[in-house]
Specification:
This protein is an alpha/beta fold and about 260 residues long. The protein has 9 helices and 12 strands. The longest helix has about 35 residues, at about 110-145.
């Protein structure tokens, strides 16, 4: 299991949907569910989903519709399709729409978990590549801003003064999107980085759960839903930084403080 992996289960049969979600949750995944293509597409386009597990035959629209909506995202999740009616036509449609894999129901638990694990690994690799490209582009932009030897053009002070956020021993390098603690780099997920960066902008002040989800997931969520979305990420983050840094303000949100 890849830590912090968000899996969306799309299945119109209540019993099957519950079973799949239970198997994945027991394996340690963060699981969301949708009973139809419309709900699934809404989740895929408004939340951070890593892997979509979708039945290809839904009541109103095909799982291919969900797959196409997912693949249209800027950093698309991996999509695994399930069906009890395998055919050449559906296999070709899945491959053309770039499904990660295609499984026939009933699928063995071991095969299901192995496929989801591989999909999550591919998703994380894609996110790492995207992050590396961002760092490279930022370095190139910074290099382009430095005058060549012999140039007399005066430059305004560089971005160093606004490049870092510091809270105690925590330092956030905004340019490289790296967080260090006492000089040691922390291995944070994209959502964990966004959480720390957002909270570090106003240390000692509460940031509401809804505001944090707006930053981490890119959409508006009511307070109760936002708290659920953040709970697992906050728990994992507290395993990576001293717990005294991250304060929960019950019923409101979180704040980043300098431990006494």
């Amino acid at each position: 299991m890849i830590p912090d992996t968000q899996v969306l289960v799309v299945e119109d049969d209540d019993q099957t949907r519950t079973l799949l979600a239970s198997v994945l949750a027991d394996a340690g995944y963060h699981v969301s569910v949708a009973a139809d293509a419309t709900a699934a597409i809404a989740l895929v386009t408004t939340t951070m989903i890593d892997v979509v597990l979708s039945d290809i035959r839904l009541r109103e629209e095909s799982g291919i519709t969900v797959l196409e909506a997912a693949r249209a995202r800027p950093l698309p999740p991996e999509v695994i399709l399930l069906t009890g009616y395998a055919s050449i036509e559906t296999t070709i449609a899945a491959l053309r729409a770039e499904a990660f894999d295609y499984l026939q129901k009933p699928v063995a638990t071991g095969d299901l978990l192995d496929t989801v694990r591989r999909a999550a690994q591919q998703r994380r690799a894609a996110l790492r590549r995207a992050a590396a490209i961002q760092v490279l582009m930022a370095d190139l932009e910074q290099a382009a801003a430095v005058p060549h030897s012999g140039e007399t053009t005066q430059r305004t002070p560089g971005p160093e003064s606004g490049r870092y956020q510091r809270v105690g021993q925590l330092q956030i390098d905004i340019l490289r999107r790296i967080v260090t603690l006492g000089g040691l780099a922390l291995h944070l997920t994209p959502i964990e980085y966004a959480l720390v960066s957002c909270l570090a902008e106003t240390p000692g002040r509460v940031v509401t759960s809804s505001a944090l989800v707006r930053r981490t997931h890119g959409y508006e969520a009511p307070a109760d839903e936002a708290q659920v979305l953040l709970r697992g990420h906050i728990r994992n983050l507290r395993c990576k930084i001293p717990k005294d840094y991250l304060v929960t303000v019950r019923g409101n949100g979180y704040m980043l403080v300098v431990p006494e």
